[in-house]
């Protein structure tokens, strides 16, 4: 199920997506009704909110994903210290809990850093809720001395990550809420909608299901449009996308209006099969442009006053990371040094 080159699940065949199953069709109807009925309120919030420059420091704002499976643990610790990054994201898959102690030991190496643990779901999480419940208990118990922040699920609006429709993901959130009651002080982050899909965000946040999110997260990739200032649908550049997501979140009873961007990057030209997309020139960039877009994204997101943290995914990855691990020696890319400059105290 897992593509180790791009660090994501393989695409599933269209015949396995069950888009026209009764449950999926019901979700589409609920989503459409919710969007139509609440669009005036969302539009009013979108147009009336007046953002002002956030007061968070660069080190509070700029986050970075790291991976146990990327290897080079000693070098990773050294580079995190060299960069000065203090906000780290670590994925913990529920299907890999035999190695849970390795994940914990890995996180313990990064002294002085704050962690967001991203709990990765898969199809069996939906099929077996008891297994999902026990997996969450294990992860929260093992990491409670390290962090209080846990993102529940990843890319909840993508079938290949396990949930065929949003209703299935919402049940996973409700179970996480039940488990949270056993761990005082734990914060839940979600719904981890990937890409700019307002309908998915509306369905995940504007409902009467039984869960609470302490922060609203989005995996807001904009790389298919090129620069962060480029528009989608002729209207939405990065700033407008963030403002719309904030407007939706501010109407939700499940969280507050502040966002955590828990993934973004630009895949690199000439790195297929390590790119998470097609690898074609129109959807990839060269290393220098990647570095520029990284700086632009952080600047726009920070000045939008819609975002509390934004995590680049990830440090070491041949197809999109700050560091290339192909060959016998790690190669730091221009984006690595761009992030280092940002962490000195300025996102301009």
End-to-end gap: 40 Å
Mean pLDDT reading: 93
Which sequence of strands runs across the widest sheet?
Answer: 3-4-5-6-7-8-9-10
Determine and state the CATH class.
Answer: Alpha Beta
Category from helices, strands and their pairing: alpha/beta
3D shape = globular
Structural domain count: 1
Strand share of the residues? 15-25%
What is the CATH homologous superfamily assignment? Answer: Glycosidases
CATH topology: TIM Barrel
What is the chains' assembly state? single chain
Percentage of residues assigned to helices: 25-40%
Q: CATH architecture, please? A: Alpha-Beta Barrel
Instruction: Return residue spans where pLDDT drops below 50 for at least 5 consecutive residues.
Output: none
| Biggest sheet features | 8 strands, parallel, barrel
- Spell out the helices and strands N to C: EEHHEHEHEHHEHEHEHEHEEEH
Would you report the number of β strands? 12
Radius of gyration: 19 Å
Number of helices: 11
Give a description of the structure.
The chain has 348 residues and is of the alpha/beta class. It has one domain: Glycosidases (TIM Barrel, Alpha-Beta Barrel), CATH 3.20.20. The chain has helices spanning 22-48, 58-61, 73-83, 100-108, 123-127, 129-143, 166-180, 198-205, 238-250, 287-303, 334-342, and strands at 2-3, 8-9, 62-66, 87-93, 114-120, 149-152, 187-194, 215-219, 259-261, 307-312, 323-324, 331-332. The strands form three sheets. It has an eight-stranded parallel barrel, surrounded by six helices. Strands 1-2 form a two-stranded antiparallel ribbon. Strands 11-12 form a two-stranded antiparallel ribbon. Helix 6 (129-143) crosses helix 7 (166-180) and helix 8 (198-205) runs parallel beside helix 9 (238-250). The chain starts with a strand and ends in a 6-residue tail after the last helix.
């Amino acid at each position: 199920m897992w593509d180790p080159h791009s660090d994501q699940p393989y695409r599933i065949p269209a015949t396995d997506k069950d888009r026209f199953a009764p449950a999926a069709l019901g979700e589409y109807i609920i989503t459409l009704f919710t969007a139509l009925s609440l669009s005036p309120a969302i539009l009013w919030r979108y147009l009336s909110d007046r953002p002002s420059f956030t007061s968070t420091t660069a080190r509070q704002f700029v986050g970075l994903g790291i991976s146990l499976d990327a290897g080079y643990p000693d070098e990773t610790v050294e580079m995190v210290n060299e960069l000065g990054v203090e906000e780290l994201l670590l994925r913990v898959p529920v299907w890999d809990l035999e190695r849970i102690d390795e994940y914990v030991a890995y996180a313990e190496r990064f002294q002085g850093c704050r962690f967001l643990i991203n709990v990765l779901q898969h199809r069996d999480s939906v099929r077996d809720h008891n297994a999902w419940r026990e997996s969450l208990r294990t992860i929260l118990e093992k990491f409670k001395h390290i962090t209080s922040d846990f993102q529940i699920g990843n890319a909840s609006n993508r079938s290949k990550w396990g949930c065929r429709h949003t209703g299935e993901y919402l049940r996973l959130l409700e179970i996480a809420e039940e488990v949270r009651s056993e761990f005082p002080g734990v914060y839940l982050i979600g719904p981890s909608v990937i890409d700019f899909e307002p309908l998915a965000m509306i369905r995940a946040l504007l409902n009467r299901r039984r869960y609470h999110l302490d922060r609203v997260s989005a995996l807001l990739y904009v790389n298919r449009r090129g620069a962060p200032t480029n528009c989608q649908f002729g209207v939405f550049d990065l700033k407008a996308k963030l403002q719309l997501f904030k407007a939706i979140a501010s109407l939700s009873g499940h969280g507050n209006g502040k966002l955590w961007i828990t993934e973004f990057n630009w895949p690199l030209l000439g790195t297929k099969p390590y790119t998470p997309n097609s690898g074609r020139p129109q959807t990839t960039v060269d290393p220098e442009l990647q570095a520029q877009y990284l700086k632009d994204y952080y600047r726009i997101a920070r000045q939008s006053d819609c975002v509390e943290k934004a995590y680049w995914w990830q440090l070491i990855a041949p197809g999109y990371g700050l560091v290339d691990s192909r060959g016998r020696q790690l190669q730091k890319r221009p984006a690595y040094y761009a992030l280092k400059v940002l962490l000195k105290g300025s996102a301009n």
